[in-house]
What does this fold into?
Amino acid sequence: MTVKALFIQERILTENSDAARELYHQGTYGKLLPNEKVQLSLIETLYLIEKQKLTVLDGKNKEIIFENLLKKIQRTEKNFWTRYCVYQDMRNRGYIVKTALKFGAPFRVYDRGIKPGEDHARWIVFPVHESEAMTWHDFSAKNRVAHSTKKRLLIAVVDEENDVSYWECRWLRP
It folds into this structure.
């Protein structure tokens, strides 16, 4: 069954339904609001549209298709496609991916079978495209963020074919 949602002022709110709450409880998508609707992030919304689990309507009750929503997001969010490729790959592999903005990173990722609230995320993930350069200063800053939040650092590298390779980095004491 497809859940219906509305695109309202850069926010996506699902209908108040059992199916919407199941997306939240089973798949750990979005944030459950007091009115029993689920607020989804743009990246979650795009993924759920692609998986045919969500139909998003605009203010005129017209369906927003994947390609149109992607174009709209890309106009305002730099490197969105790279982040989306990583999000999609991690979700397809069975991981729960949530935002990590309060940690200064794009994503935090939980081990398979672990939901937010049950335990802490294992990784902080920084998506990069293979054509991007990263300085040692950038790398060190990312490693410090992971270390200070007691998480492992994953650098997710997206290539020209949109395949993702992961590099885990950790502090070691010899």
In short: Residues 3-76 form a domain with the MutS, DNA mismatch repair protein, domain I fold (CATH 3.40.1170.20). Helices lie at 18-27, 42-50, 66-76, 80-92, 136-148. The two ends are 53 Å apart (CA to CA).
